[in-house]
C-alpha cells in the first residue's frame, strides 16, 4: 500500500461549512505560498457554493478568483466540485452550456473535477465527465453516500461501475452529512476497489463524530486519498482536522509525509482570518448526532438556522429537523445534497411554518416529482405527487434531453454586459444575480457586504446601545449618517437632524405603527396596537385573509397577476426565491386582486402584505 494522499478543503468546503462561504480571495492569497509547499494531492478551491457567494455577497468575479489562485498555487492541483448537469446553479443546463463551462473552468485553472449528481443519476453526469476528459483533466466520479431502504453497497457498486465505464480517473465517496460508519466505510471501499480497481477518494463531514474513524477504516480497505481541512476551519459541520489525520497516519505504512509544523503555521493564519467573519458563524458547528437520523448536511443546517432566525422562528428548528426525514421519504429518499437538500429542506420549513403538511408546495418539488431532476432512488408517495402535480406525466428520459441548446441565446441576452465567455457563463448560472453583478461591475459600483468589526461582537450579557452614528448602503452607495438632534414632533411626524457625509439634513420621520400604552403603568405591555394606511410605495402589514404574504424571507422572482384579475384560492400569484429555491405563493382566497405592493427583484419578509385580494 502506497502512502495516503491528502486533499485539503480549507479554501472551499471548510469555510462553506463554518462561515457560509464568505471568505474573500484577499484572505486566501497571502497563505497560498505555504499551502503550495505542503504537498497536498489537491486543494479544493472552487465550485460548490463559492461561485454563488462570490457573485451574490462578496461581489468578486469567481473566474478571477480561480485565475488568482492558479497563479498563487503553481505546484498544487486545484480541485472543484461540479454538480453534473446542474453545474454550479440550481437547474439543469443544456449540453452545450455544460461543455462550455467545463472547458472554461479547465482553461482558467481547474485540474480535478469532482462530478456528482444529487440523485446519483449517472445520466446527469455523463456529459460533464466527457467534457472533463476532452479537456485533458482529471475526472472524479462522486457517489453521494446516504442511507435508506434503497441505498446499499450493491447499489453503490453499480454506480461505481458506471463511472468506470465513463472513463473516470478516480472514485469519490461523498459523505456530505457524516453518515458513513467505520465498518461500512471499510466494506464499501473494499467493494468499490474490487469492482473497478479505480483509486478511491473519501470525503466525510465530521458532523456526527464518525468521520475520523471512517477515514482510517477506509484507508485500511484501500482508499488512497482522504479529504481533510486545516484545523482553523475543521471539525463539526466541516471535516476532520488535517493535522490530526496526518499525525494519526504518521509512522505507519500509510504515512502522508506532510509536515505538521508547516500545517500548524497555516492553521494559525486561518485562525486569525476566521475572526473577521464572526457575524457569519453558524450556531450549529459542533458534533450533532441528530444527523444520523435527519441526514441534514452541515451547510444545510446553517442555511436553515439563518432562514428561521430571520422569521424569529429559530425555536422551530427541532420541528423542521423532524420533518425533513418525512419529506425525504415522501420524495423517494434522495440524498440530501445541493440541490435536493434545498428542495427537501425548504418544503420541510413550509410544512412546519404554514401549519399543514404540503399546504404550500414549492415549484422545485413539483419539478422534482415530474422527473425533471432525474430518476428518484426510491418510490415516491403517490398522494403527495397527486397533490403537487395532479395527472401530469412523469418523464423517463434524461432531463437535459428536453433542453435545446441555449448557449447562443444566453450569449445574446448577456451581450451588452458580457466582456468574455466567462461573463456569459456567470449570467447563465444566475441570470438575475449575474446581470446585477455585471451591471455593477460596469458601473464601478461593486461593493461586498460589510464585515462588522470584531469589537462589535458583544459578549453574553454585554450592554447594548442604540447607534447614533452609522453607515447605510442603498443601491450600492454607502452614506455616513450621524444623528445630531431631534425636533418637536407634530401629531404625525417628528423631524430629525442628521449629518449625511458631512452635510446637515433635516429628515421627517412618519410613524406607521402607533402603540397605545396603559397610562397607569409606564412601560407596561402593549394594549392596543393600531395601524395607519402606509404611504405610496410602502407595504401594508397583513391584516385580513385576503392579504398574500410570503411564508419565509426571500426575493420576488415574478408577479403572476394584475390588478383587477380574478383568482381562485390556490392559484399561484407570486414566485419567490427563498433558500436558493423558487417557490410559488398561492392565493389564500377566491376573489379579485385589488392591490399589488411588490415587484420583481424586491426582498420581502413574512410580515409584509404583498398582494391584496378582495374575497368574493
How would you characterize this protein structure?
The strands form 5 sheets. The protein has an 8-stranded parallel barrel with strand order 1-2-3-4-5-6-7-8, surrounded by 6 helices. The protein has a 4-stranded antiparallel sheet with strand order 9-10-11-12, with no helix packed on it. Helix 20 crosses helix 21. Helix 8 (153-166) links the parallel strand 5 and strand 6 (170-175). The longest helix has 16 residues, at 260-275. Helices cover 35% and strands 19% of the residues. Mean pLDDT is 87; it is low at 460-465 and 514-534. The chain has 21 helices and 22 strands. The protein has 616 residues and is of the alpha/beta class.
Provide a brief overview of the structure.
The protein is α/β, with parallel strands linked by helices and 616 residues long. 35% of the residues lie in helices and 19% in strands. Helix 10 (211-221) links the parallel strand 7 (200-204) and strand 8.
Given the structure, what is the number of helices? Answer: 21
Indicate the proportion of strand residues: 15-25%
Query: What would the principal axes of the Cα set say about the shape?
Result: globular
Q: Assign a percent range to the helix content.
A: 25-40%
Radius of gyration: 26 Å
Number of strands: 22
Oligomer: single chain
